[in-house]
Amino acid sequence: MTAKKYQKAQKRVSGRKQGYNPQHFLAFCIPISIGTFRFNPNKKAKDMKVTAIVEKGSDGLYSIYSEQEINNHSFGGYGESVEAAKTDFMLSIHEAKKMIKKETGTIPNGFTDLQVTFKFDIASFFNYFDWINVSKFAQYAGINESKMRQYKSGVAFAGERTTNKILAAIKKMGAELSAASL
Question: Which distant-in-sequence residues (6+ apart) come within 8 Å of 114 by Cβ?
């Protein structure tokens, strides 16, 4: 992502009424394996970690940005889906890596083993994991189905208690899926 694109995405994100509120985000650590970037779970000491915020904007587009920088390079992406925004975000990391190497002649040690944690708002979570039936998930989580559809579309925002209920249901579902075998 070029600096101009990133600034445009940042303006769009910063101009929202909702803004970043940690209570409205669901955190998941998703290891990356794209191009020359790789996640090595055995290497702990010098791993670089980046937290990427995934949001759905009022314009219907999805943004992924990080407030962290590596060698004064920022990361960001946006697109019509979370997948498209994630691809753009990963491209910005790749471009930053190339620019850092060009500027300094070397790449920081942990940059090749970059660990990205994605924090989703509810709308972007259900866009990314579109195979989850929102109504069935609402029943599973003990939340009103109509309200859950509003959270998914971005019309309404879940409070802290509801967000915690959603996150607990996601973790419970993940544990149940992990314990299942065929």
Answer: 32, 37, 39, 47, 48, 49, 50, 93
